[in-house]
Every structure is written in structure tokens, then in C-alpha cells.
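Hi support team,

I'm filing this because I wasn't sure whether my run with zinc ion finished correctly. The job status page said complete, but I'd like someone to confirm that the output block is well-formed before I use it downstream. Pasting the exact inputs I used:
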Amino acid sequence: MRTIKIFDTTLRDGEQSPGASMNIREKLEVATALAELGVDIIEAGFAIASPGDFESVQEVARVVRGSSVCSLARCIEKDINAAAESLKDAQQPRIHIFLATSQIHREYKLKMSKEQNIESVRSSVIYARQFCSDVEFSAEDATRTEIDHLARIVETAISAGATTVNIPDTVGYATPTEMYERINNLMNRVPNIDKAVISVHNHNDLGMAVATSLAAVQAGAGQVECTINGLGERAGNCSLEEVVMAIKTRHDVYNVTTRIITQKLVPTSRLVATVTGLKVPRNKAIVGQNAFAHESGIHQDGMLKNPTTYEIMLPSDVGFQKTDLVLGKHSGRAALADRAKTLGFDLASDQLTKVFTEFKKLADRKKNIYDDDILALIEQNIHEQPDNIDNDNTWSFVSYDLRCKTGEEPKATLTLQYKNKNYEKEINGGDGPIDAIFLAIKEITGKDISIKEYSVQSVTGGQDAQGEVTILLNKNGETYRGYAVSTDTFEASTVAILNAINRM
Ligand code: KIV
Ligand code: ZN
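And here is everything the job wrote out:
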């Protein structure tokens, strides 16, 4: 049975999802989880893109063991130099260079002839091979590239020393049948194709990224590029958890395997959702909360008689831990630590102390504390207030006094703390109470900010459920994310705004 390499690009293409930027600490946490998940190659970033990107690739390269670590680069020497330099400490480095090959990109974006296109691939792969024995070349927009030209590009990349050649469906345009035919065609006509691994990297614009990736595997592709939760540019990339579970569940069809430890899929998905702030939809295949929930009476009856009537995978195979355990006021630190671990978060002692303190406060306000409440507490207390944040330089919430009446302007008196000193502001105005709070925060902190996105969601069902607020603030064209939960939505909104400000 062939083993398909899983190339994860959550930290690079996934980070290109609007609002999904991660700091270095978060990237390291995700990279460590990806290595533990069994990912073969981790694309840690695009080293030349910014000093922050360079540093992230460098740190991931230093920490990760057991998976290859890769940096993206254009077919430009300074890009390849930066990628090589950032990967110096990697145990298994890979340089990933790309160039668009389709007519539309050659003519409008690159202003390059076919011959120049081929020469650029050849010289860049040769250049990259000076630094690294593992070089991947990607033909950007390959699925809209003339097949004869694409075949020449693939042959050139391989003869120049590329060890992997990627055929991306950059704009998510190909159908599964077309993808199969394209890979099959290349397999049959490129004379040196057996000297490299053929890869695919499919975007999800038409919702077909997983299907096209599976079709490519059937045609002989040996690597699939994907992201956790399907994150990525625009509609995202092929979802790692979906493609891996399709391969595993339908091995009778695909007859291939991967190295992924599938029981770690749900915890990894939760971690990525937590650090990016991009929530997993409840009905998302494999890792969504409802992926194994049976609502209809007929289905429930079948499940009780024999789970295989309606279940094609076991929830435990993807890392869902069945539990009837609900924590509450009398639950102790050990029970919380155990629950957090089951949910995929092995909290260090100081982190547990933080979360436990907030857990006790919550238990005073809310009778039953569910898994989602615990995940929200971890998100708010560990990811929103990391240890490396400069605590002397952060704003915190003290209290508010809100008066609202239909037909009248709201009035908000807000007290915040900064460097152990309280600051108070009263605002009469705003479109509503949240706007009044926002205006008061702006006045107190003196920050020139605007709200780009604001969402409130209930963490669980029930009248005493916590409200979960995610906010994107804009300051000088940069976006900053804030998150907070509370049974009091006004408090959660205030803290979420402050958390975003504290990241600035
Ligand atoms: O979508 C794409 O073509 C890419 C390449 C850089 C591989 O992300
Ligand atoms: Zn992409």
C-alpha cells in the first residue's frame, strides 16, 4: 500500500485566511501539535514575506523534530536565500519554490514567455538545490496551464533537481475528473516523473478541494497539501482531517495510507480554532461538534441497535472523547486538568492555576460547566493572555455602569485599569450599549481604532450560557483579534476589545 505524504500548510496558506494571523508562540504551539499528529511536512511560512515570518520559520525549524519543515519562496534568489537561512536549524529542511505557469498569469502577472517561464523554473530549482537536497517546485495555477507547457515545466523541474513537484489548483476550478486526468496525463507523458513525488494543493472555491485531492491520489499523486479545518486563502484549502479520514475510511477504494494519528485530529482542530479565532462550524465533517450527533428518532433508534447503522467512523477514531462528565462548583483542580487534557490541552501548572481560578468564578455563576465552557476558558486565559504579554502594558476591565432605554441615547460609565491605576469615562451616546462601551474605551485608551468585525455566540445551550465575543479591530490598516467569554455579554465585549488592544 502506498503511503501518501501529508504536507500541512496551516501556518502558511492557512494563515492567509482573513483574520487568522498567529504570533510566533501560537505558530510554535500549532507546529508542535502538527508534528505530534504525524504530518510529514510542515510549511511554516514564507520567510521573505516579513521579519516576523522569517523568525517564525526559524523557530519552528529549531523546535520541530520528526517532520520536515519547509519555507515558501518565489523563483527569486533573495527569496531562496531567506528560505535557506530560516531553515538552517531544521532537522529535515525543505525549500518550496513556486512560479505561476498558466497563460493568464504569464501574460498579465509575470509578463513572461513560455521559454522564460521554463528557464526561471530550471535556474531557481538548481539554485535552491545548492542549499537543500529537498526542493519542492509548485506550478502555481497548474490546473489552468496548457497541458503541454505544464508537462515541460514538470520535466524541467525534476531534471533540475526538484524532489517534489506540486500541481496546485490555485483558484479551486478543477473538477475531480479533470484533476484525475491531468495527473494521469502527466504520469504517462513526463519521462522522468518517477524521479519525484507528485503533489496536489487544491483550493476550495467550488467546495471540491478534498474531492480533487482524492482524485489526484487515485491517479498516482504521492503528496497532498492541506490545512487543519480547511483554512486558507479565500474559501480555504483541502481540509487535512477530511482527506485523511476519507483515505482511512474508504481504503477499499483508495488503497493508500497516511502516517496521521487520527485520534489527534479533534484536539489539533480545536487548537487551531483557538489560536486563529476561526471557529469550526458545528456541521463541519470529521471535527464539527455535530459530526457524530444523531438527532432524528429513527437514527437514534438505529444507533442504539447497532452504531454501524448510521456511523461510518468511530468518534474516538478522530479524537472525540465520549463523556457524560459535567463539571461544577465542587469539581477540583485535578478534575479540570484531566478534562482539559482529554480535550487536547495539557496545561502547565501555572496555566492550570489561571484557568482554575476563572473556572471557580464561572461555577459561581453557572451550575453546569460543559466541555465548550472549559475550551472557552482555556482560550480566554491561555491564548488571549499569554505569559509573554507585557502585563505592565495592558489594559484590564474594572467595571461598567450602563443605562439604556428604548428611544434614548445609551449612557455608559466605564472604569479600566492600566499600570495599577484606574481610569473612568462617562459617555452619553452611541448606537447602542456596546457602541457606548466602545466609545468609552477609545476615549480612555486614546487608541485610534475601529471595529472591523464583531460577533457574539452562545458557548453552550441554556439560559445561563456564557456569551463568547470575537472582535477584529482595525488600527492603521492592521487587524487585531480579541476574544473573551462571560455570562455577561457586555463584560465579554469589553474584555474582548481590551484583549485586542493589548495585542497592539
Ligand atoms: O495556491 C497556490 O497555488 C499556492 C502555491 C504557493 C503552492 O499556495
Ligand atoms: Zn494555496
